[in-house]
Amino acid sequence: MGKTSQNMKGENFLTVFQALSLMIAFATLMILVINTSNKK
């Protein structure tokens, strides 16, 4: 029982980490696009 709960927590953490990294990457891309458009 304990091992399964630990595995579930680990999987949830991985999915949350992936979602956060995706959001950060998307925000960085948006900032880069805004900066390039402003320079032009």
UniProtKB/TrEMBL annotation:
InterPro entries according to UniProt: BsrE-like
What top-level branch of life does the organism fall under? Bacteria
Keywords, ordered alphabetically? Membrane, Transmembrane, Transmembrane helix
Membrane-spanning segments:
12-34
Q: What is this protein called?
A: Holin-like toxin
What is this organism's lineage?
Bacteria, Bacillati, Bacillota, Bacilli, Lactobacillales
